[in-house]
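Hi all, a correction to my earlier message: I attached the wrong file for beta-N-acetylhexosaminidase. Here's the right sequence:
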Amino acid sequence: MRVVVPEPSTTARPHRRRARSIGSVVSAALLLPLTLLGLPTAAVGGTLGAMAPVDPPVESPTVLPRPVSVEHDADADPFVLTPDSRIVAAGEAAEAGAFLASVLRPSTGYELPVVTEGGHGADITLQVGAEHAVEGYEDSAEAYTLGSGADGVVVSAASAHGVFNGVQTLRQLFPAFVEHDEVTAGPWTVPAVSVLDSPRFDYRGIMLDVARSFQTVDEVKQFIDSLVQLKMNHLHLHLADDQGWRIEITNEGRVEGDDIDYTRLTSVSGQTAMTEQGYEDEPGRTGFYTQEDYAEIVDYAAQRHVVVVPEIDTPGHTQAALHAIPQLNTEGAAPEPDPQTGVPPAHGTGEVGHSTLDTRNEVTYTFLEHVWSQIAELTPGPYLHIGGDESHVTEEEDYIFFMERMIDVVEDLGKEPFGWNELALADVHEGNVLQMWSAGTAGAAVAPERVNENGARMVVSDAPRAYLDQRYDGDDPEDPDDSVSPIGLSWACPDECTVERYYDWDPQELFPDVNTEGFLGVEGPLWSETVRGIAQAQWLVLPRAATVLEIGWTPQEDRELEDFFGRLATLGGRLTLQDHNFYATPEVEWAVDAAGTDQHLRAPGTAALTVGVVTAPGTSADEVSASVDLGDGSEPVPATVVATREGEELTVNGEYLLELEHTFAEPGTYSAVLSVTAPNGTTTAPFTVTVLGEEPTPTPTPTPTPSVTTPVAPPTTPGGGQLPATGAPVALVLLGVAALVGTGARLLRRRHTRG
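and the right structure:
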């Protein structure tokens, strides 16, 4: 058997901003002295030993997006992850195995080695190969099957992408607290299910506009992680617009006669952004990606089977380029340059349609060929997005001339051109992609013909139903000014802008004349006029992105609104535990969930304890109550509910710690249960409390003499057993443990705020 050790840079779980408690450290610290004492490690309980018995879950599994087929045997024993479990993943499955291990290890505390060969039960096996192609979906690189039961879990696919998709489903089949970054009590079960799954569309994307307000590399990674679990497979990065330019372009490789200083794109327009419309008047955030930064994002996405689609919007939405590069401000460009500077001023408002490159001047194409050649070199994916929307000051004839030139530029680089639906005005080629955003805009009417006759493909981003920057609806749907959203726009969705609206549509019904094979997929764009930072981006995107991604994954005939809301209810707790922000819309009865935290005390007495964690999205601490039966024969004890983060208008406040003080009279291992009541329901969770006996006093070893050696019998434990002959060193270890878990020790509270 060979153990596969993942590279930390490629598979490590993203860093969480929550300060860690000492609970798992205490458990590990106790394990060593108990082993030295000759006691079974089961005595410490929980993830390192005995666990309070619970019945296996019998409710139907909830997965987003809904798989093609799920068969659940409620009468069969579930799979139970144990400290002895392994992840068996060889060859192309190894990266998915390492990813899964990075999810499961922090919450379970288990080693979970990733190995290349199986050997016993209770393992999770990931397998990739042509022999694992899914029957009926042999042409899909993303199809997979998943089977689970008492003997183990097996995820199979013909490709690494397929098995990675299966891993995302497996994450959701585990209890939600598998997403926690600290050890909780479990149990870690997967219901006995058989899943067969494959996507409806090949393209399921979300767009992030970093041009109007910048997002850092780490923020983009967090954005990816929040969405990949919902099977997003394309990230569209809007890198340049009127307000800013966000990717480094160097002067290396300039053609003869090109005197443009491309570094000005970021040294000048990397420092500009929106100047209005931010929450509490915060301006847009500035910055840019070096080419190394961009490559890091692309690589991080690729490890999660996400294709990055870079966009440089042209010929309109180009004032940032015109502001940075004097040579672009020729006669046909707009707006007119300032006579003093030779360039137009920076643009920080949300106004659109006022700028254009000079489509009839060769300097424009010299510039764009250089820009796209560098971006293409950095982008392994097949698509380059050339924009094309809202070019209101570009004459139609000039626009068509420009876009047809740009189609050739991109295709000459070995890439597929991608553009907003206005691109359909041009003579697009087979395989070119039209992103349909508004039926009332140029090119929309002719787009179906371009798909059916030219062989173009269609990605649907219908603005009233898919634009994720639109604000959430308020209490009065008749009043467009009444909104719960302090951020977001309303031009595309002025009222009834709800999760229901975003779910209840079908892209193929919008374009009934388009051949089925002409639909590449769907995308939900997030424009950033009002967005500042990743928390605000996620607040607008989630949970609505789940609707767009399910439309892209699940067959239309299998989608049903109430069923979706029921499955969506479980997502909130997972996002909370993952530290992803979202809007806890009142449309959804968010599930209440809890996990116990095993307790380890060195002696009877009074102790202050943090006994569990609760997720209840959309609530406040004073709406949640809890009582705890500590299993020692005493009456249930009320727990104090403490929020782990400060709730604000644009951040979720739905995670709580349960704290109490209790006196344990006798040593023992107690099976405890906490019970939680919140506005949306109740839940229970088990944990164990292990109370050791009084600390033993070691007997000193007499100083030996040259003539006599006096053996010393090992001291006895309070229970009558003998300590191993380790003497004072054992006592020192116990004293060290006492410093961590002495009576009254309190787990550190994980209070924090979102950035």
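Sorry for the mix-up. Residues 436 and 460 are 5 Å apart (CA to CA).
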